[in-house]
UniProtKB/TrEMBL annotation:
Transmembrane segments: none annotated. InterPro entries: AKR, Aldo/ket_reductase_CS, NAD(P)_OxRdtase_dom_sf, NADP_OxRdtase_dom. It comes from Novibacillus thermophilus. The keyword NADP applies. Keywords: NADP, Oxidoreductase. The record marks 73 as: Lowers pKa of active site Tyr. Residues 15-259 form the NADP-dependent oxidoreductase domain. This is Glyoxal reductase. Belongs to the aldo/keto reductase family. GO terms for molecular function: oxidoreductase activity, acting on the CH-OH group of donors, NAD or NADP as acceptor. The active site is at residue 48.
Length: 274
């Protein structure tokens, strides 16, 4: 496992396990499999409605808490200073934990303009020692700039949609300049076309690997943190087996050239659902 050091000095596994769209009933066995394979970072959210099942898998694993890195997120309807503090306590309760490693704003929802207050509540949690790190998801450069201007704690990372067909180079450049990691969600294009891409397949064949493994390797070599999701045991394992090969500069360049701006999810400025 590779670890990265976040801007507040704490270490985070560069490869984690995502659990979006995994029902609470299914998530416990999926997370148990991931932990058995070696993943130590789990990415959930209040809105995934599976924090309880994630917590159950953590408890049953017997893995020391300090060896795990658990992320959850404040949902749009819980934004605002007081509501965020309450939402954090409720997430902890569902997870059965007394802290999470990373608490994130799920979407900026600019229409409501509450993300600065929300972030200030997260700064309080951080300064009170109740969470090890704080950050954001789906923040465009203008949203990040506002936090940098109006708040004190630089987010440790920005979790955004990112895969070879939607490479997010501008956000990557901005984040790198400000010591903020990019964490890729839908790193495998949510199971989409990129897994069949012919150019990636040629690279995969040359290494005796799959398209998914090559794509994850591309993320890792770009210094991106990532959190692929799967409920299929063989894929959970496959996605973890990416530390025994390396892409050449030429192979990285070929994958870089596949970017076609193909966003799969919502644009953050248009995602104001509560
Ligand atoms: N902050 C946000 O707004 C946000 C938004 C979206 C996602 N996320 C986070 O990012 C995580 C990952 O994103 P994601 O779930 O959208 O998509 P993803 O990890 O890009 O892809 C998951 C899909 O690909 C399939 N898959 C996984 N590994 C595979 C492999 N080796 N070969 C072939 N197919 C494979 C999975 O199928 P099976 O499960 O059937 O195996 C699933 O359908 C989420 O779970 C969540 O934690 C965050």
């Amino acid at each position: 496992m590779n670890f990265v050091t976040l801007n507040n000095g704490i270490k985070m596994p560069q490869l984690g396990f995502g659990v979006w769209k995994v029902d609470n009933e299914v998530v416990t066995s999926a997370v148990a499999k991931a932990l058995e394979v070696g993943y130590r970072s789990i990415d959930t959210a209040m809105i995934y409605r599976n924090e309880e099942g994630v917590g159950k898998a953590i408890k049953e694993s017997g893995i020391p808490r300090e060896d795990l890195f658990i992320t959850t997120k404040v949902w749009n309807s819980d934004q605002g200073y007081d509501k965020t503090l309450k939402a954090y306590d409720e997430s902890l309760k569902r997870l059965g934990l007394d802290y999470v490693d990373l608490y994130l704003i799920h979407w900026p929802t600019p229409e409501y303009d509450e993300y600065v207050d929300t972030y200030k509540a997260m700064e309080k949690l951080y300064k009170d020692g109740r969470v090890r790190a704080i950050g954001v998801c789906n923040f465009e450069i203008e949203h990040l700039q506002r936090l940098l201007d109006e708040c004190e704690v630089t987010p440790v990372l920005n979790q955004v949609e990112c895969h070879p067909y939607f490479a997010q180079d501008e956000i990557k450049d901005f984040c790198a300049k400000h010591d903020i990691f990019v964490e890729a969600w839908s790193p495998l294009d949510n199971g989409g076309e990129v897994l069949q891409d012919e150019k990636i397949r040629q690279i995969a064949d040359a290494h005796g690997k799959t398209n998914a493994q090559v794509i994850l390797r591309w993320h890792l070599q770009n210094n991106t943190i990532t959190i692929p999701k799967s409920v299929t045991p063989s894929r959970i394992e496959e996605n973890f087996n990416v530390f025994d090969f390396e892409l050449s500069e030429e192979e990285m360049r070929i994958i870089d050239s596949l970017d076609r701006g193909a966003r799969r999810g919502a644009h953050p400025n248009e995602m104001n659902v509560r």
